[in-house]
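so the lab meeting is tmrw and i was supposed to have these ready like two days ago... anyway. pasting both below. for each one the top line is the aa sequence and the line under it is the structure tokens. i havent really looked at them closely yet so no promises
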Amino acid sequence: MAKTINDVLEAARQDTGRVQLRLKAVDMAILVKGVVTANQALAHNKDQVIKLESVKKSLVFGDQQRLSEVVDNLINNAIKYSPPGKEIHVHLKETKTAAVVEVLDFGPGLTKDDLKNLFRKFTSLSAQPTGGETSSGLGLSIVKHLVDAHRGKIEVTSKGPGKGTSFIVEIPKSES
């Protein structure tokens, strides 16, 4: 319930343009590892395994709490929509200009209509949670807004129903 209330409040802040970022150098390797660790119990309860592959250090200029929300939402969705027994892969790598986080699941995948409407508020997609979880329909719109606020990019690919989904987030590297 608290997560749903926070999602609604965050959506309202987006509508008024009132999302404030507390910018500083953030090590995405530490951040991603922490979010993966925080979600391990949830994955374990569904007989899922989160596999992390990460560079040792990747500095970006961003809001640590907001970036944690982005990664947490993507991992949480992968757990929520993947069937029991599936793996979830989280990769952190670097390009010359960005830290790149990929969350890859082997769940139900997305249809072409899902991909068109993915980041709209209160959108219900074709995939359904696999363990009785619920969805506010706000999480991915919040993720998109926060990635945009960090001057980053988000990309989603799915080869269709039953073939999983890959979310890739790029956040610009810190200059220092």
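ok protien two:
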Amino acid sequence: MITRLKAMIMLLALLSIVVNGYSQEEKKDKKEVVLQQLGEKKFTFVAQSMRPMRGGTRQLTTQYEVKVTADTVDSFLPYAGRAQSVSMNPSEQGLTFKSTNFDYVKEEGKKGRITITISFKDVSDPRKMIFTIYADGITSLQVTCNNRDPISFDGYLRGSQ
């Protein structure tokens, strides 16, 4: 009975080591994929929640995203907050726009954190998007506008097709 118990404990310990090693390897692989996507300027941010300046966090039930490629930023995000001026064109509501003239700055921080700052030259609003990307792909996005309150989004990175 005691030898069976010892064998069971040894088996559980071995299983724990194997699972932990696999988990560490998976995290390393994901980090490499994220770094490659950011270096190629080809990624998609998928928003899961938004945090307006006034009010609490709101979970998003629709697929909202920002697609970034080397030559285009295509944004489809909602907006909640105070605006100083509003377009009467329904296609310009929220943070829905396409930009082909922008600056892309990548900075590496502590613990594998990467900050991507995109400043737009051909879009009147927003002025800037700041992505804070962690090694596992979890991402925070801060949007600074000219005519609206700032807003933040939480989500993750998905590789662009």
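from a quick look at the 2nd one: Strands lie at 43-52, 58-68, 73-77, 95-99, 102-108, 114-120, 128-133, 138-144, 151-159. Helices lie at 2-39. will dig more after coffe
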